[in-house]
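Q: Joint fold for the lines below.
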Amino acid sequence: MRLWNVISGVAWRTLKNALTNPQIVIPTMAFPLFFFTAFAGGLSQIRHVPGFGFPLGYTAFQFVFVLLQSAAFSGVFTGFGLARDFEGGFAKRLLLAAPHRSGIVIGYALAALIRWMVVAVFLTVLALAVGMQVGGGAVDLVGLYVLALLVNFCGFFWAGGIAMRFRTIQAAPLMQMPVFLILFFAPVYVPLELLEGWIEAVATVNPVTYLLETGRGFLAGDPPHALGAFLLAIGLGVAFWTWAFLGLRKAEAAGA
Amino acid sequence: MSAAGNGIEVEQLVREYKKGPRAVNGIDLQVAPGEIYGFLGPNGAGKSTTVHVLTTLLPPTSGTARVGGHDVVKEGPKVRSLIGVALQEAALDPLLTGRDHLRLQATLQGVPKERRKVHADELLERVGLADAGDRKVQGYSGGMKRRLDLALALVHLPRILFLDEPTTGLDPQSRTAMWEEVARLRREESVTVFLTTQYLEEADVLADRVGIIDEGKIVAEGTPAALKAEIGRPSVHAIPEHEEDREKIAGFLAQFGEPLATTRDVAVRLRAGLGLTDIVRAVDANGVRIADLELRAPTLDDVFLAKTGRTLEGAQEEAEAEQEERRA
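A: Joint structure:
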């Protein structure tokens, strides 16, 4: 019960700030919606490129990428908040008040998840409103959103681990840049088969490629490597969870 | 004395910072349940580091500390559930209201849901923030932030309260209000209070016992009265009417006791058996004019001076100069 108190308290406070302050909520919402309208609208003619082959069209093709991207960045932005709390001293209050400090990290992770879910609802409604086709059934769609949820956890635990090691918002580029790169070195605009040269080589070994292809497969009703993608996402989640909790130990040892 | 109740026991506590000084250098102390313990020292003496260790915010390098009967290293969660803490810099979220802070703190501390609102209202009233409770903290003054910080430390009715320089930067009125609240907590709720301060008057007024720390070591400990009694003799301070008489006054005052290092006046610690009348007679006999003559009972600053060879104010200036040097 005390652990849940810490988790719910931290999540409530993080969400209250994230969802009621325009300076935080507007970029959180606008960023993925802008990406979606810019990519899906501006690049829609890519569907006519020979070999494109995604059956649901370009809007659905881009939707999955933006959904996963928003999941990852909701996690990273929540990590920014954690870094700000260390820098400003508020983390000391949390460390002093929480009997179980692991609840602090889990509380932020829960906030990151809810924050992303709000964005995901808006994004999904927008995509359906502009005529996105959906080929998969209910199970496929659950698969897609659960996959995105795991990406959200990975994004937060990665950024949270950095935040607790550096304990300053100046570490924000270090949280954001690797996520940005790994997402954009995946087949974002066209399928993997249409990529060539070094980007194809990088995309082939990039784990996000498998998550993205599986996500698109879920939306189309034919996920290519569902089990592998989930194992990969869970494995990354466990690795970044460990990374984040080791970061918490470092912050504790440093006296926050 | 035991820490099994609401007390604090510290043995040979050391905290070293990486590439830094030994901030706490083997201190021993005991605080009895229900006692107000004043931890007095200049900036950089090790007061805040000690509080950070005792409140489980910082692990010690060596030594042991038990708070409320629990080891701060091995039983951190138990210690945290017993204590309330107001740190030197109030750690508040500018985007939350005072009431939001109380709600968050109550949730973290596991205060039952049905009691949270009533308790928040009571605490806001008690610290004089009832009207400001629904305003964001970014609009609070320094004094209001301090008062909110104290209210937050009290949310879960802690048995032991750590206050790290709670009145630094407060105006005299807010300072007095804070003292009254701390005294009330001890008197009415038997809360043990560990209070760090650099204000002699604060330690003198509030504390049952005082520990004086300098350069990471406790140099004196006892009740304020006993510490001052150790020094024993009063001092006489004379301000010459004409500056050119200063040396002459210092010369004849030296017959009455050992000179004290002061800047504004000429002062001596009186030898036993002497009083102000002896000095007045000597002034008269020497034919000098004195603008002001004062007999002072020993203060905690005299204790600090006797134990460290510096006044607390002087030590403060030294610490600040050192910090400046490091920054440069």
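Q: Anything notable?
A: Chain B touches chain A at residues 52, 55-59, 77-78, 80-81, 85, 87, 89, 91-93, 95-96, 100, 104-105, 107-110, 152 (CB under 8 Å). The domain at 233-297 of chain B is CATH 3.30.70.980 (Alpha-Beta Plaits).
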